[in-house]
Amino acid sequence: MSLRYFYELCTAKVIITNFRTTDLYKKRKNQYYIQTWHSSLRLKQIEKDAEEALPPHYVQMAKKDSVKCDLLLSGCQYSTEIFKRSFWYNGEIFEHGTPRNDVLFQGDRGGKNEVYHRLKISPEKKIVLYAPTFRKNNNLEIYDLDYKNISRDLEAKFKGEWVVLVKLHPHLISKSSQLIYGENVMDVTSYDDIQELLMIADVLISDYSSLMFDFAITKRPCFLYVPDVKEYISQERKLYFDLMELPFISAANNQELLKKIDEFNEEEYKERLTAFLTHVGSFENGHACEHLLNRINSVCFNETRSEMNEAV
């Protein structure tokens, strides 16, 4: 953490973050501290629910951070209940969706074309994004996806020419180059905004990452490649859902994943997605940024929406 980080943290009127702030930061009077957390919904258990699996120093920092928090954003009713039970937080929960997911509601290709240009990929290509989470031992062997045959089967099932984007967890950014890539397979681990990659992805392959719930907004196919599910639950983190409860399609090995791609039924998949989003009580509607901006202006600058419009 740099001196600039501390300067901005201590002098800002409004602080918006998706992680815990350091114990060294003491919140000033009249600062408005907003916690967005990592996603609209979690698969891996968090905070108090996962306290036994978390480092003691992190738990203490998290408890202190929750005291500083003025507003906690929630993407769905299920997350609200988790926050009430597990976040060591007794303040207001803002149930208007997740700002970072607003981009996934965009229907135009303007924003998508910018991402294609940045990645030097033709907009005519189809994208499969492989975005798994990390393991405590930083083991890369678990990421043994059969890129060549997956691209072949996606082409057979959905047509078009496919490019595989591999986005490892930020914890592995220094190790991503150690994976063996191939033709039409790109390492995008250093790409800053994962939501932009979700925006252009035609298919997502993940494992236990909460990205699956963000991607559900798009109603596009999501597959879970989970060859180590038993070990993950016993050694890494317990889960809020059994994988069979989820609308996404899971596979324990490459052969099964290829079979699931071949057998994919779009109509049945979308029905499961819709039912699941209803079950968890999703608040996502593409207007989370607007709702949050209105709240910030009201609390910090005493401006109503009409006053904001007049000022434009």
Give the SSE layout.
Blueprint: H1 3-11, E1 14-17, E2 32-35, H2 56-68, E3 71-73, H3 77-86, E4 92-94, H4 110-119, E5 126-130, H5 147-158, E6 162-166, E7 185-187, H6 194-200, E8 203-206, H7 211-215, E9 222-225, H8 229-235, E10 249-251, H9 254-262, H10 266-280, H11 288-301, H12 305-311
Helix pairs in contact: 4-6, 5-9
Keywords: Cell membrane, Membrane, Teichoic acid biosynthesis, Transferase
Membrane topology: Peripheral membrane protein
GO biological process, one term: teichoic acid biosynthetic process
Short description:
With 312 residues, the chain is of the alpha/beta class.
Q: What's the mean pLDDT score?
A: 92
Spans of at least 5 consecutive residues whose pLDDT stays below 50 are none
Strand percent estimate? 5-15%
> What spatial order of strands do you see in the largest sheet?
7-6-5-8-9-10
CATH topology of the largest domain: Rossmann fold
Tally of separate helices: 12
Instruction: Determine the fraction of residues in helical runs and give it as a percent range.
Output: 25-40%
Account of the 3D structure:
The chain is α/β, with parallel strands linked by helices. The protein folds into two domains: 124 residues, CDP-glycerol glycerophosphotransferase, N-terminal domain (Rossmann fold, 3-Layer(aba) Sandwich), CATH 3.40.50.11820; 178 residues, Rossmann fold (3-Layer(aba) Sandwich), CATH 3.40.50.12580. It is built from twelve helices and ten strands. The chain has a six-stranded parallel sheet with strand order 7-6-5-8-9-10, sandwiched between helices. The protein has a four-stranded parallel sheet with strand order 1-2-3-4, with helices on one face. Helix 5 runs parallel beside helix 9. The longest helix is centred in the C-terminal third of the chain and has 15 residues. It is a peripheral membrane protein. This is Glycero-phosphotransferase. It holds the Pfam family Glyphos_transf.
